[in-house]
């Protein structure tokens, strides 16, 4: 299976709706997006059609109206976005990306605890 291209910001907004709601019609996606910003129904429809062509979403054609769903879970898309960002902006260095992310905004104690736990797990739990 070929790798899907990285979604644009607008496509990510649609994916966020689909991940939150589950499989949805264009109308349902539009209505939820409309709560955050002004966007036309036909714009959402066109974006979903483009996303379908790119393999970012799947569509159930067996009934009307069509129902769209993400082709990948959020973790898989996030992994691709992070890998692309590390490659493009940090010369492939995960350490540089993490250091910049941590220094760019305040990190809560709970987040730091979670990060330490993840690092320990990646390191085999060694102290």
Give a written overview of the molecule.
- Strands 1-2 form a two-stranded antiparallel ribbon.
- Helix 2 (26-34) packs across helix 3 (41-54).
- Strand 1 and strand 2 (67-70) form a beta hairpin.
- It has helices at 9-21, 26-34, 41-54, 74-89, 94-104, 109-122; strands at 57-60, 67-70.
- It has 127 residues and is mostly helical.
- 61% of the residues lie in helices and 6% in strands.
- The chain folds into 2 domains: 9-70, Orthogonal Bundle (Arc Repressor Mutant, subunit A), CATH 1.10.10.10; 91-127, no CATH class.
Q: Report the mean per-residue pLDDT as an integer.
A: 91
Element-level helix/strand string:
HHHEEHHH
Strands of the widest sheet, in order across it, are 1-2
Count of the separate structural domains = 2
Compute the separation of the termini in Å: 40 Å
Low-confidence stretches: none
**Number of helical segments?**
6
Overall 3D form? elongated
Helix content: 55-70%
**Computed structural class:** mainly alpha
Task: Kindly state the number of beta strands.
Answer: 2
* CATH topology-level fold name of the largest domain: Arc Repressor Mutant, subunit A
In short:
By secondary structure, this protein is mainly α. The protein contains six helices and two strands. The chain has two domains: 9-70, Arc Repressor Mutant, subunit A, CATH 1.10.10; 91-127, no CATH class.
